[in-house]
Amino acid sequence: MQPQKADGLGNRTEIWTFFRQWLRRPLSTAAVSPSSRFLAQRIVTALPEGAERVIELGAGTGTFTRALLDSGIKPANLLAVEFNPELHSYLGGRFPDIHLVRADARDLARVEEVSRFVAQGPVQAIVSGLGLLSMTRQMQHSVLAGAFELLPADGTLIQFTYGPRVPVAAEVLRELGLRASQHSFTLLNLPPARIYIFSRSRSVAVTGQRLHGA
Ligand SMILES: C[S@@+](CC[C@H](N)C(=O)[O-])C[C@H]1O[C@@H](n2cnc3c(N)ncnc32)[C@H](O)[C@@H]1O
Questions:
Q1: Which end of the chain is more exposed for a tag (fewer CB within 10 A), N or C?
Q2: Which atom of ligand 1 is least distant from the CA of 59?
Q3: Neighbouring-strand partners of residue 81
Q4: Which pLDDT tens digit goes with each residue over 38-55?
Q5: Ligand 1 center–CA 92 separation, angstroms
Q6: In what order do the strands lie in the sheet with 78-81?
Q7: Architecture of domain 35-200 in CATH?
Q8: Crossing angle for the helix pair 12-24 and 85-94, nearest 10 degrees?
């Protein structure tokens, strides 16, 4: 399955596939339509310089996946995580060459395929399309703790949000020793979106080193 690029807001198959899932699972899908190509391009510009290996959380219909591949990330160096079975299957048809896992992003560090991918080489960034804003603090904590367990000390997590503020509770950031900085804002998305970059605070000891590749 290779959907046609129609415009910046996605093609009809992609939009319809996504919309159907929103009708069925509005809370976890967290958006009515896929992100725009413009937001996806911004996400890619937030990657750390020289990033080669990336994990994507909540890949949906693959807007960010496409942009990551177009930016030069090799399919073998990209692992996408999606827990919705229909979207996981859609992604498998659209991107047969990437690593694709059907899993809950809250269990990231316990998923075998993810551990294997990280053991093959360091992952410089995690791109998240998850609706963190609609998650409880406990869920946010699980997602971020698991993600930073996989990243090296200078690794970053890139997250977009429709809200005007950091989409993670301040106490969760404090507990995990993380800081967030706004990277950019784009009007060219429905709704307009901000991108934040999460990284470890310098003052906090790094604990999550167990899975890193050489
Ligand atoms: C706001 S959509 C973003 C989709 C896509 N990244 C985009 O920007 O168009 C959130 C996606 O995360 C997935 N998702 C939500 N919670 C998840 C979880 N705990 N683990 C894995 N995927 C999840 C949803 O199924 C949905 O595809």
A1: C
A2: 6
A3: 57, 101
A4: 999 999 999 999 999 999
A5: 15
A6: 99-101, 78-81, 54-57, 125-128, 156-161, 193-200, 178-186
A7: 3-Layer(aba) Sandwich (3.40)
A8: 160
